[in-house]
Amino acid sequence: MRxxxxxxxxxxxAISLALVALLIAYWTSSNACYDRKTAPxxxxxxxxxxxxxxSPDVLKVENIEKPTPEEDQVLxxxxxxxxxxxxxxxxxxxPYFARxxxxxxxxxxxxxxxxxxxxxxxAVGKNVKRFKPGDDVFGGRTGAFAEYVTVREERAxxxxxxxxxxxxxxxxxxxALTALQGLRDKGxxxxxxxxLINGASGGVGTFAVQIAKxxxxxxxxxxxxxxxxxxxxxxxxxxxxxxxxxxxxxxxxYDLIIDNVGxxxxxxxxxxxxxxxxYVMVGGPSSGWIDPLPRALGALVMSRFVSQDMVMFIAQLNxxxxxxxGDLMQAGKVKPVIDRQYKLSEVxxxxxxxxxxxxxxxxxxxxx
Length: 368
Fold this sequence. Notes:
Elements: H1 2-28, H2 32-35, E1 44-49, E2 60-65, E3 73-83, H3 85-92, H4 97-103, E4 116-124, E5 136-140, E6 148-152, E7 157-159, H5 166-170, H6 173-186, E8 194-198, H7 203-214, E9 218-223, H8 228-233, E10 238-241, E11 254-259, H9 266-270, E12 273-281, H10 293-303, E13 309-312, H11 319-330, E14 338-343, H12 347-355, E15 362-366
C-alpha cells in the first residue's frame, strides 16, 4: 500500500513539474521578431512576417535580409505563390495541440509564411548541377510569401514546363502533391476503379479529379451547386451536388474515397465503399483544439476491425513527384484551377478568403 502511495506521489509530482515547465515555456516563448537586436544588414527583400498568432491582420510586409544560397542551394526570384489551408492554421495557431508539436506555444516559432512558389533561378551554389541562373522553376519551401527563397537542389524544386504560367505552377506544390500521393500511394488507385472525391472544387479536389482521370479511373465529384459545371469541366464523370443529395445515401459503391472535407462520419463513408475499398482522409474540420486528430485515430482503429483501409496522411514534398506533376501539366492532363489572385501586400485578404471555405481551386499571390 505504501509503495502504491509512493508511486502516486511521484507521478503527481512529475505531472506537476511538467505542467509548470509547460507554463513557463508558454509565457517565456519568443521568436525572431522579439529577439531581433539590430536591423538586417546587406541586401533586403520584401516578405510576409508575423510575430503573434491571431487573425490574418497580424501579417505584415517587412524588409528582411535577402537570403544567400549555400553550396547545394538555388536562389529563386519568386514570381508567384499560392495559399493553402495550412497557412491560416499557422496564422491562427490552430489546432492548439500543434503548438506543442513545434508550431510555437504563445507565439509562432517560425515567423515566415507560405510554401508554394514559382519563379526564376537567380543564383546557385557551387555544388549545384541540375539548375542554372535563368531557369524557371516551381516547388515548395517555407517562407514562399517573399521576393526570394532558397531551396536545396535535391529537395522540392523542379523545372517549370514552358506551357505553364508562373501562377499555375505556383498552385501545385502542396495541393497537387497531396492529391497525387493520396490517390497513388495511400489509395493505390487502379484503372477502371470508381473514385469519389468529396470536396472536388477546392485546391486538392480539383487536382484530385484530374489526376484520378489520368490514372484511368471513373470519377465522381462532390461539390456545391455553383461548382457543378466547373467540376464536370475538369473531367469528373459524375457530379453530386451535396445541397441536393447526400452522397453517403447512394446505392453506388466506390473503390476509393478521397475526403477533403470530413463532413460525414467514418461509418457513413465506409458504407459506400466496396469490401476492399480505401478511404483516404486529407482534410477535415477543426474546432481549434485537437481536431482532426480524433477522426484520424478513429480511422486507424476502424481499419483494424473492417475489411476496408481507412487512413489519414500528410503529403511529403519531393522533387520526383513535382516532376511527375510537371509532366502531367505539360501533357495537358492536369490544368490548375485558379480562383483569385492577390498582391503580396494583400496576403491577409487572400488567407481570409481561403479561410471562409468557398474558394474554387487555388488562390494565388503575385509577387512583383
